[in-house]
Amino acid sequence: MNVSSSAPAALRPLRRAAGKATKLLAAAALTAIAAMSLAPGQSMAASYPERAMTLVVPFPAGGPADIVARLYAQHLAELSGQSVVVENPAGAGGTIGTRAAVQARPDGYTLLFGTTSTMVINQLIMKNIPYDFDRDFTVLGLIANAPHVLAARADLPAGDIKEFIDLARKNPGKYSFASSGVGTIVQMGAELFRLETSTDLLHVPYKGGSAATLALVSGDVDMTVNDMTTLKPLIADKRLRPLAVAHGQRLGLLPEVPTFAELGMPGIQSSTWWGLAVRSDTPADIQETLRGLHGKIISDPAYKARLAEMAVETLDLTPERMAAFMKEETDKWARVVKEADISTN
User: Fold this and answer.
1) Element (H, E) at 53
2) Which of 53, 64, 253, 258 gives 262 a disulfide partner, CB atoms 3.0 to 4.6 angstroms apart?
3) What is d(CA 313, CA 294) in angstroms, rounded to the nearest whole number?
4) DSSP secondary structure of 256-305
5) What is the CATH architecture assignment of 148-246?
6) Are 79 and 112 in contact (CB under 8 A)?
7) What residue ranges do the domains of the chain occupy?
8) For 198-232, how does the pLDDT look when each residue is reduced to its tens digit (9 = 90+)?
């Protein structure tokens, strides 16, 4: 065998492999050089978002959370240049959808449309949640706030809220309030009213807000505390009667209805509010991009005007004020949970 004449042919595969390795190393070096040449604060995620995003709404389609979320998704899509798909993995008080969001990749393409319940209340009333919201998520900003209204059945024998309170005190346990389920913000708002007025009211939970509102219209229960995204059409056609607003000022849609504060009950303030969250280990620069997009959305006059039609207001808060707001909410509802002995376990 002539070794010298056959060696070059045998070495060709090795040479090709070495050539490929050299090219890969060169490409890696160029990538590293490009990364190092970025301006301070810049990163390879500067092009985010490059594809469609998913907004997880952990409540059924068609409900208040879904309505506000789809409006937000529309504006986010317009600003980001990418489509935003709204998904509704509902159930278990919002924990199913929230768990789906925490199990997604922390790449900024799965966003959580959080609510008062999922971001605050569930942690107070549920003992076996499969995640720790404060640890696993970062709230990028609050989206909107829907103040609550105490609404009664149209034929309730009380002309105003003070007459109803007197009626309830004289007849302990006779009058009832509907909620969309145990531990929901709808129950919490009514429980706050009950505690602040020292009235004995019967809680009747239903499977969802629609069923609760239907029961009220039908006269099966006497009152509810909810936001205008649900109550507006029924109040407009006088099937329900608004008695008081649980907010700092009167609502534009109900200018004739006084606030609890005006009536000497400033402690009765409740609302349904929503926020945008991502997994806490999402890259910081992507979080910052989302904060920037969020800020533009909630300051958009068209977005504000659309929300105002539902008696919903934007929550444009600094990070410090947002943290203070969420702490205030946590403290308030923790007291209600304890004094009303609310638990889902």
Assistant:
1) strand 53-56
2) 258
3) 15
4) TSPBTTTTT-TT---EEEEEEEEETTS-HHHHHHHHHHHHHHHT-HHHHH
5) 3-Layer(aba) Sandwich (3.40)
6) no
7) 49-146+271-340, 148-246
8) 999 999 999 888 899 999 999 999 999 999 999 99
Nearest-angstrom CA–CA distance, 209 and 98: 20
Joined together, the tokens standing for residue 26 give 């060169």
CA 37 to chain centre: 39
Torsion of CA 182, 184, 186, 189, to 10 degrees: 90
SS3 223: strand
CA 217, CA 219: separation in Å to the nearest integer? 5
- Pairing outcome for strands 137-153 and 313-314: antiparallel
State phi, psi for 267 to the nearest 5 degrees: -75, -10
Helix, coil or strand: residue 225:
strand
Tokens of 247: 């907010």
Give the span between the Cα atoms of 317 and 145, in whole angstroms. Answer: 12
What tokens were used for 328? 């205030």
> Tokens at residue 242, please?
């608004």
CA-CA distance, 323 to 329, in Å (whole number)? 10
Tell me if 49-146+271-340 shares its fold with 148-246. Answer: yes
For 42-91, how does the pLDDT look when each residue is reduced to its tens digit (9 = 90+)?
Answer: 454 578 999 999 999 999 998 899 999 999 999 999 999 999 999 999 99
